[in-house]
Design a protein that fits this description.
Structural class: alpha/beta
Largest sheet: 8 strands, mixed
CATH class of the largest domain: Alpha Beta
Shape: elongated
Length: 323
C-alpha cells in the first residue's frame, strides 16, 4: 500500500494511546513537554482515549486548555491499541511520528535519541527494552514471541512490540490501514515488508508506577495467530489463489493417488468394495475444489477491495483538530 501524498505540517507528532491512565497523564505530559521544547521543533501531542472509564478524557481536555498543542481523539468504547494507533497515524501531521504508552514505563527522555536515529537515515526506529522492568511471566513469553517473529519474518529486532517507536511520516501513513485487531505488535514487520528501513535502539524501561497492566497472558497466544496473518498479507494478499491453489493441488494429488490405487485393485480383483480410504479420497477431492474456490473468491476480492478505513471506529469527541 502506498503512502498518502500529503506534506506534513509540523516537525513532530507524539501519539499516546491510553486506557484508564488518569493518574499518569499530568506527569507524562510535563516530561514530554520539557523534552520537546528543548528540541526547538513544532509539535503536537495526540492522545487517543480508547474508551476509558475513569477521568482520563477530562484531564486531557484540561491540559488542552493550557496547551493547544494537545489534541484528543476519544473512542466511544474500547477498540484496542491497534485501532488507537491507526487513527493516530491517520491524524498525525508531523514529519516524524513518535508513539509511546501512557503508563510512564516508556521514558520521554528517549525522544531526542529516537529522532536522532531517524535523522541518521532510518525509516522506523523501534525501542528495545533490554532491561525490562516487568515480571518474568511477561518477559519470558515476550522473548519467545520476538524470537519466533524474527525467524519467520526475517526482521532481526529484539522487541517488535515495544510501544516506544519513531517513524517517518511516510511510514505512519503507509502502515495505518493494516492496523486492526492486535496487529500493532507487528508494525516494524509491516514496515519492513513494505521496503522501509527498520532498526532498533536500546531504551530505558521503568516499572509501572500507577494502575495495572491491560494485557494478559492470552495476548501472547493470539500473537502467533496474528503472525500468520501478517505473513499471509505479505506473501499472498495480491495472489491468494497461489496459496489456496497449492493446498488444492496437494489434496487433489493425494485423492488421485488413492483413486489410482483402488483402480489398480479393481483391475486385478475384478470387484471393488466400499472402503474408508476410498471415501477419504472423495472427501479430499471435495476439499480440493473448495480450496480452489476460496482462492478464486480471494482473487476477485483482491481485485475490487477498498482500502481499510478508520471511519469504522465510533468517535465520541475530537479536540484540537481543524476541520
Amino acid at each position: 500500500m502506498k503512502a498518502m501524498n500529503i506534506i506534513p505540517t509540523c516537525d513532530l507528532s507524539i501519539i499516546i494511546p491510553l486506557l484508564n491512565e488518569a493518574d499518569s497523564l499530568h506527569e507524562l505530559y510535563e516530561r514530554c513537554r520539557i523534552e520537546v521544547n528543548a528540541l526547538d521543533l513544532s509539535y503536537e501531542f495526540i492522545f487517543i482515549d480508547d474508551g476509558s472509564t475513569d477521568n482520563s478524557a477530562a484531564i486531557i481536555q484540561e491540559l488542552h486548555q493550557q496547551d493547544p498543542h494537545i489534541k484528543l481523539i476519544q473512542f466511544r468504547h474500547n477498540y484496542g491499541k491497534a485501532a488507537g494507533l491507526a487513527i493516530g497515524f491517520e491524524a498525525a501531521n508531523g514529519a516524524i511520528v513518535i508513539t509511546m504508552d501512557a503508563d510512564l514505563q516508556d521514558d520521554p527522555a528517549e525522544i531526542p535519541n529516537l529522532i536522532a536515529k531517524i535523522n541518521d537515515g532510518w525509516d522506523l526506529v523501534s525501542g528495545w527494552k533490554k532491561k525490562r522492568k516487568d515480571p518474568l511471566t511477561k518477559r519470558l513469553p515476550s522473548k519467545v514471541f520476538n524470537y519466533v517473529t524474527a525467524k519467520v519474518t526475517g526482521l532481526k529486532i529484539h522487541d517488535a512490540n515495544c510501544g516506544l517507536k519513531a517513524y517517518r511520516y511516510e511510514v505512519a501513513k503507509t502502515v495505518y490501514p493494516y492496523l486492526y485487531g492486535e496487529l500493532h505488535r507487528y508494525i516494524p514487520v509491516l514496515a519492513h515488508m513494505e521496503g522501509f528501513r527498520v532498526t532498533e535502539t536500546v531504551v530505558v524501561h521503568h516499572p509501572r508506577k500507577y494502575g495495572i497492566s491491560k494485557y494478559g497472558m492470552w495476548r501472547f497466544f493470539s500473537g502467533f495467530f496474528d503472525l500468520t496473518t501478517v505473513v499471509f498479507l505479505n506473501r499472498y494478499t495480491k495472489r491468494p489463489l497461489h496459496f489456496f491453489g497449492i493446498l488444492g493441488l496437494i489434496t487433489w494429488a493425494t485423492a488421485s493417488l488413492i483413486a489410482l490405487y483402488f483402480f489398480w485393485v479393481w483391475l486385478n480383483e475384478g470387484a471393488l468394495r466400499v472402503r474408508p480410504m476410498l471415501l477419504f479420497a472423495g472427501f479430499l477431492a471435495v476439499i480440493g475444489v473448495q480450496f480452489f474456490s476460496m482462492g478464486l473468491l480471494g482473487e476477485m476480492i483482491t481485485r475490487f477491495r477498498q482500502t481499510p478505513h478508520t471511519a469504522d471506529y465510533l468517535i465520541k469527541n475530537r479536540l484540537g483538530f481543524t476541520k
